[in-house]
Design goal:
about 260 residues; alpha+beta; eight-stranded antiparallel beta barrel; about 35% helix; about 30% strand
């Protein structure tokens, strides 16, 4: 297909868009395929030529789509990372046997406008809660699903606080090495990465999530996270308690340091 690109780049790109539309109509795109492009670009690629002509796309997008559909692309967009990390069949088996499932992520993030302050009800505010309030942060619950996709690749889907929506905000790949899970994904023209110290799904697992905001100045941030399997109903209920959840999170994660950082 590379020869097609050089001989007739626009014609090859149109054929690639036809293949992409056919794949989408046949049952949807894999998380890895979605991660190649932002949601906005993917939406334009799937439109018919009459609505969005192929000539309007940049050369880099044309080449990226053709590459992603070629045999040279390999089974996964993240295959190069996997090779550099030296992920083995044993690592994949560890993910498959121990860490597949639906999880909830708890973390601090920048507060939305007019977010109620739970501390104002108590009268007594701990030093950590004073710091959180000064930074204008709020405690949120998000969703993460780890699974093996149709190509038998370890993958994840991530939803923000509005996780009832069907389509994930971020899709990507999962790697395991030396007691850590690495989650690498892309969406909305940004990269995201999670590093989580893992034990077993019956216990909470903590780590960090690093990405950029998808609104405003797109400032980068890093947040300490707590990953809890959906089956751990007792801990989930405690963390969802607006009066006790934030302190419990800080106690479990030893959150007296670096639980949220951002740069403008």
């Amino acid at each position: 297909m590379d020869s097609e690109l050089h001989a007739d780049g626009l014609g090859a790109f149109r054929k690639a868009r036809d293949r992409l539309r056919a794949e989408y109509a046949g049952g949807g795109l894999s998380p890895q395929k979605k991660a190649v492009f932002s949601a906005a670009t993917l939406s334009r690629l799937l439109k018919p030529e009459s609505e969005y002509d192929s000539s309007q796309f940049s050369l880099s997008i044309r080449e990226r789509l053709i590459w992603s559909l070629s045999d040279d692309a390999g089974p996964s967009v993240y295959g190069g990372i996997e090779e550099l990390m030296g992920q083995s069949p044993i690592s994949r088996q560890i993910i498959k046997e121990n860490f597949q499932g639906d999880y909830r992520i708890f973390r601090y993030t920048k507060a939305s406008p007019h977010t109620p302050d739970p501390d104002s009800q108590d009268g007594v505010v701990s030093p950590m809660m004073q710091q959180r309030r000064l930074l204008e942060l709020e405690f949120v619950e998000e969703r993460l699903c780890i699974f093996f996709d149709d190509m038998k690749e370890p993958a994840f889907h991530y939803w923000g606080r509005e996780w009832q929506e069907e389509d994930p905000e971020i899709a990507g790949a999962v790697f395991y090495s030396l007691g850590k899970l690495y989650l690498t994904g892309a969406a909305r023209d940004t990269m995201s990465m999670g590093i989580i110290s893992v034990t077993r799904t019956t216990e909470p697992m903590q780590g960090f999530w690093t990405s950029t905001f998808h609104k405003g100045v797109r400032a980068p941030f890093s947040a300490r996270i707590l990953l809890v399997h959906e089956g751990n109903e007792t801990l989930l209920a405690a963390l969802r308690d607006s009066a006790k959840g934030p302190e419990l999170f800080l106690n479990i994660t030893d959150g007296g340091y670096a639980y949220y950082m951002t740069m403008s």
